[in-house]
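[agent] plan:
  1. take the single chain provided in the ticket
  2. run structure prediction with default settings
  3. attach structure tokens to the ticket
  4. add a short note for the reviewer (M.T.)
[agent] executing step 1
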Amino acid sequence: MRLFERSREANTLAKAFDACSAGIGQFVIITGGPGSGKSELVHDTLKTVGEVGATVLLATASPARTEQPLSVFRQLLRDAEVSCATLEQLASTHPGWYQEDGGGTGVIEERDWPNVDSERAVARAAEEATAALIELSAERPLVIAVDDAHLMDDDSLAAMLSLLHRIRKKRILVLCVSWEQSGVRGPVVHRQLIRQPHERVRIAPLTEDGVAALLGRHAGGPVPRETSDAYHRATGGNPMLVHALLDDSARFGSEPGEPVASSAYRQAVLTCLGSTSPAHTRIGAAIAVLGDFASARTVALVSGDSPTTVLETVSVLNSSGLLSDYGFRHPAAAEAVLNELPENDLARINTDAAQLLYQSGAPERDVAARLLAADEVVQPWGPKVLRGAADLALGADNVRESMSYLRLALRDRTDEHDRHRLLAALGRAAWRVNPAAAEASLAQLRRAVFDGCLDADDAATVLRYMLWQGEDSDQVAIAIGALSSPVASDRDNQSIAEVEFIRQWFYGVPGVRRPGGPDESDGTASDHCDGGPAANGEVGLAGLSPKLAQLIAGASDEVVASVVQSLQGLQLDRMKPELVAMSLLAIAHTDRGGTAAEVCETLLAYAARRKATTWHALLTAVRAEIALLQGDLETADAKSAEALDMMHTRGWGVLIGLPLGTAVFANTALGRHDRAAELLERELPDAVFRTVFGVQYLRARGHHYLATDRAFAGLSDFETCGRLLRDANAELHKGIPWRADLAEANLRIGRTKTAREWAEAQVEVGGSRPSSRARGVALRLLAQMSRPNVRTSLLHEAIDLLRASGDRRELAVAFSDLSATHYELGDYARARLVARHAAQVSATGPVEAAVGSRLVALEHLGLPEEPGAAMLLTDAECRVAGLAALGYSNREISRRIHVTMSTVEQHLTRVYRKLKVASRADLPSKMLEHRIPTLSDHFASGETAAPAV
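[agent] step 2 finished; step 3 output follows
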């Protein structure tokens, strides 16, 4: 192996050999950390001197031979093939001293001298061995190398000191490879050796340049500086570790890249530690377990070693590149050390570390991590620390860590109340990333809810989960009634009221009357969400449900702004995603789809950043539904598909109907009937069809049936929706136009009278604020069943409502119907103008008009192009002219753009003059001829009409 940055050290050894060859004995001590390249340097030197005729002898001391008399000299003599009669006699008379393992090494546990004669025999053998080695130098230079010299047995050390005293005028070079700090016996041996005249060679770790040169040699050319620096940081310049990282990283590419620590690196770490004393491994394990809390004091307390031993060991491990101060340079090094420990030893170290950190006031998560590693709950403080650490981990978005702490805390708990609280916390943590995983914990608490054994927050968690999974709504209602109490705290009643709110939304059922509440309560959600913490100034989720109730009861700008503010101030840890979804959809159904989409996008980014999979999936489904309400079919399709991919059906529970229904709606409207049919093949839990999500799914399926000429199947689905919603809470679900669905299906199969009745019923749906979208769709259907002269006024009203709702797709369909009506009445210019509006406002491309390609053909008759003509009219005149061309009367224009009748008449007078129009009937053709922008053009580009002209 080629050596890097060792030329100075090699020159020192070469000079020592030259002096030795000249008859001046030399003694060189070579020091450095494990893996630093000491042995490689010595072997390279031995090879060089051997090639020029020197006699080379090599021995290695080890902890296993420290009780073997003269073990080092016995190896040297065997290497020289020189016998020593006394030493061989000792081996034959005391076989327990030298139990050969086939490799010339002996292993004994304890030195037990039989008698004084044996001691004298060892002394005589040492003298003979020394003399034999000196005699070898008479013929040619002798180079003796002892690796790990700090581990020499006492007799070998004595013999070595004797030899060193006699080589000053001999051709002998002695090389001792050692450490300056080396554990239990090392300092004693080292101090004896350094008292002798010697040359010192210290092997330092490679510098950044040295590591760069090594990597360049391996790659066959220079490597980027950031790469070599990364290797140096991970190894501290230890050549053995650098080579190990190269071996591991080579699996991922021929050229060195970012260092990858795997099996070779871990083995090199263990080799570095294995060549040291057992105390080093023990101390290294303590450092690995303590992590950032490692210091001389803490490591000594956990490992059981003295602070002095810890300091010496840390110095050695720093010089070896394993540590940087009191921390491992690479996490894989710490992992390798801990994996080598017996399971019981590792558990003990972690337990001791946890005790020490707890007594020192360390953060709960750091203490709990050691308890988890030890798989032990230290009493009496362990459970409390684990619960606190679980909350902190969840707040830091580490759900897996939080659940691990809770499971450990649960394992040995016998107190029923404590177990209930831990199970509820475990269920909430699991719910954040996978609702199906929460089943194991929360299912154990169902009985406790009905027995009244849970506090309000935990009971609310279990009941919400029961609703999520589609369990009996009536049973949940019973529990809500039992838990609601006039003597309970506002916070507790608020938690239960939120569950009732969710129950009503999911199932569209009447509310549960609170004990002691008003006798005349109408059972709506608002009856259960008044007061509470919000009344005391608390913000966030506690203040959301009362505001949501106000929003459903009446959508003023102030109420919407209040709900938006509450949503933007939510904390994920207290977020109930069902209420958030309700709020966003309620905002969207108040003709504020843009606001709902903007807030939803903000919450989506927050949920993604917090790694809350369940929250992210549900919000993505809500975003898809908002896009559908806006007529943005491509976004609705993409977002619903994304939501469905985030969780499997069991995790979605009954809410699977939301993204699935949206996806079917979008694909049907886009004409992707095969994709819609594929989505409808998914199996759903029966419980879905008892909820509003099932209703949306059935509506989507019904419209798919209508689009694929299966009108009677569609009618059946719509009738099912009607049965489910007829007795539902109308305020919560007024945005679902199920009556209009029935009207459309009946119209398709020729039941015009029934269709008209259902459409009129949809138009007459009251409430605090009827849905503009539902009413607009119904008016459009009524127009289809009316005479052409009546149809235009109905379509104008429908267009106004659909424009207000923000549904560009439905608006485009209404414009298309209006275009067809004008064509039927023979007003071709106006028909062409309105058809152009239909194409402009559609968010997903042109909408097929009833008159089909005839309008398209008329659009290309070759009318003169006058790009500058539009500049003839002001913006105000464009708006008035556009509405007049669409057939609006002066009074209707006045009401729409909030100006007086006189102002409208003045604008029209100027328009007639500028465009040379003789009458109102000529306006549509002139608007097309001059390409005059209209109100619909502004709408299509995302602008809105100004409130004043």
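[agent] step 4 note for reviewer: The two ends are 88 Å apart (CA to CA).
[agent] ticket updated
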